[in-house]
Amino acid sequence: MPKPKVAFVCVHNSCRSQMAEAIAKVLAAEVFTAYSAGTCIKDRIDPLAVAVIKELYQVDMEETQKPKPLQSLPPIDILVTMGCNVSCPNLPAKHREDWGLADPAGKPKEEFVKVAGLIEGKIKDLAQRIREGRLAGL
User: Do residues 121 and 101 touch, judged by C-beta distance below 8 A?
Assistant: First the structure.
């Protein structure tokens, strides 16, 4: 069975969803393929998000990722919204969930570190649920 495709979506695709994509590629690449996108993208990833992910996971998102619109996503299996009340009616998925994460944009670095830790825990949980076949629709 091929790995499921997971899309992390938030409004600007410049912070939480980018962090989730990067962390997932480090921690869950053997379980699912990670993507991120936004509904109203910014022109670059938040510099503090870039710094924190580089520091914690040794991934330079400026080299490996960029903000992308929803239309750039391939057909996905799992849609994860990051907590910004994004509705994606035109984005079909077999499973959807919202992670309810506060946006750290404009806040101190410590908030980005905190959000990265929350994302890491949620990615590990998602990967475990996929491994165990506990997601409806998959």
Answer: no
